[in-house]
């Protein structure tokens, strides 16, 4: 493979650079006991397989494509951050192509083949040592030692939501499921944390605010990795999420917003009028926010007679879109919106909002008693516990 400095990019190479944004492995949450054992069994086989973990750190890519694309150019690009590190190329012969070279795990690499003026087959993967099989078509696929391990890991994680996201389960049951899930994922990520594979997995899970292993994995990252912008952003995102917890037991923060009549209203106009006030932070463009509104409405109807009220606070800046969303929701509690992008930033900072839906539960004295981050189920559990007293 040849190193390039400030290369003059061809149309295909420009496409490659456009496609070189960071990607993460698709994560879906999974089952535990039996699934973990199945994963560990396969992992053990791979770990002790001499053919996979030999001392030779060379990758061998063997690719297949429909023979109708014979003589088409196939390109293998490696990257450092968003910059092209190197480009190698070959031609399709008898529906096959191949590459080989030193293992490169710092970033995902890209194999691509332009088969029409505006159409390209492309897939990202890590250039791990050993055999790598690539099939280029409309749904490209990779087969390699790591991908075998990763697929087993991913498949072992497929059913976890079904085991603890069942209505009627207790909060303790839910938490126990997540704790075991995070421990399972930690063991996998820890194994790869010193290369781009581990970093990619680390970044993929940075949004899990309750992951107890985030900082432990962060400390295992090489110092040079901690200077990467994506790592810095993930770290700051997690710190901002953690800051939400610091709001509990503190007085609510007042803020001026507007109602449907464009009248200015303050949060303090609603605090103290009920035993509990739920600040429901949402927006018309937030799918999860809209999806959970019927559940919030059910809880509102159930606990309204006990002194539970809701105040909707939208981060919308488009009033018409906000009004249409309110109409479609069909809710009965007061709704306010920010209406200005700079004010949205100010509100986000005050309440440490890094994502919505988000809920802030305030008692009659004005104290924040809970920060609701796990959507409506979290609120359900908090209300059940609160009204037991």
Summarize the structure.
The protein has 389 residues and is α+β, with helices and mostly antiparallel strands. It has 13 helices and 16 strands. It has three domains: 2-156, Immunoglobulin-like, CATH 2.60.40.1120; 160-245, no CATH class; 256-386, Glutaredoxin, CATH 3.40.30.10.
What does this structure look like?
- The protein is of the alpha+beta class.
- The protein folds into three domains: 2-156, Immunoglobulin-like, CATH 2.60.40; 160-245, no CATH class; 256-386, Glutaredoxin, CATH 3.40.30.
- It has 13 helices and 16 strands.
- The strands form four sheets. Strands 1-4-3-6-7 form a five-stranded antiparallel beta sheet.
- A hairpin with a 2-residue loop joins strand 3 and strand 4 (83-91).
- Helix 10 (287-303) packs parallel to helix 13.
- The longest helix is centred in the middle third of the chain and has 22 residues, at 171-192.
- The chain is elongated and about 75 Å long.
- The chain starts with a strand and ends with a helix.
- The model is unreliable at 1-36 and 38-55 (pLDDT under 50).
- Pfam families: DUF4369, Thioredoxin_8.
- This is Antioxidant, AhpC/TSA family.
- Residues 246-389 form the Thioredoxin domain.
- It is found in: Cell envelope.
- InterPro entries: DUF4369 (IPR025380), Thioredoxin-like_fold (IPR012336), Thioredoxin-like_sf (IPR036249), Thioredoxin_domain (IPR013766), Thioredoxin_ResA/DsbE_sf (IPR050553).
């Amino acid at each position: 493979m040849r190193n390039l400095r400030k290369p003059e990019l061809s149309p295909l190479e420009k496409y490659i650079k456009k496609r070189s944004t960071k990607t993460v492995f698709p994560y879906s949450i999974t089952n535990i006991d039996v699934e973990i054992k199945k994963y560990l069994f396969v992992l053990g086989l791979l770990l002790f397989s001499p053919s996979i973990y030999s001392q030779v750190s060379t990758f061998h890519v063997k690719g297949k494509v429909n023979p109708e694309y014979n003589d088409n150019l196939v390109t293998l690009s490696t990257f450092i951050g968003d910059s092209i590190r190197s480009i190698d190329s070959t031609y399709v012969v008898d529906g096959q192509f191949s590459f080989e070279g030193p293992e490169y795990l710092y970033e995902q690499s890209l194999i691509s083949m332009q088969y029409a003026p505006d159409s390209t087959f492309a897939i990202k993967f890590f250039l791990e040592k050993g055999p790598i099989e690539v099939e280029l078509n409309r749904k490209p696929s990779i087969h390699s030692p790591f991908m075998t391990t990763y697929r087993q890991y991913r498949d072992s994680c497929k059913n976890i939501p079904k085991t603890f996201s069942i209505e009627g389960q207790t909060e303790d049951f839910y938490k126990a499921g997540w704790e075991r899930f995070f421990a399972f994922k930690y063991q996998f990520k820890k194994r790869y944390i010193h290369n781009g594979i581990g970093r990619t997995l680390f970044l993929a899970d940075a949004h899990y605010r309750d992951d107890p292993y985030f900082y432990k994995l962060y400390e295992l990252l090489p110092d040079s990795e901690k200077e990467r912008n994506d790592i810095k952003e993930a770290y700051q995102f997690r710190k901002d999420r953690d800051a939400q917890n610091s709001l509990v037991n503190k007085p609510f923060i007042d803020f001026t917003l507007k109602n449907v009549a464009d009248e200015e209203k303050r949060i303090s106009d609603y605090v103290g009028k009920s035993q509990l006030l739920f600040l429901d932070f949402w927006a018309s463009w937030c799918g999860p926010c809209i999806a959970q509104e019927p559940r919030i409405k059910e809880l509102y109807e159930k606990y309204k007679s006990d002194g539970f009220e809701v105040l909707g606070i939208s981060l919308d800046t488009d009033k018409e879109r906000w009004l249409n969303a309110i109409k479609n929701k069909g809710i009965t509690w007061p709704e306010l919106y920010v209406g200005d992008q700079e004010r949205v930033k100010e509100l986000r900072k005050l309440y440490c909002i890094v994502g919505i839906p988000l809920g802030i539960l305030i008692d009659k004295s004005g104290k924040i008693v809970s920060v609701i981050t796990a959507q409506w189920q979290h609120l359900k559990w908090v209300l059940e516990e609160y009204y037991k007293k």
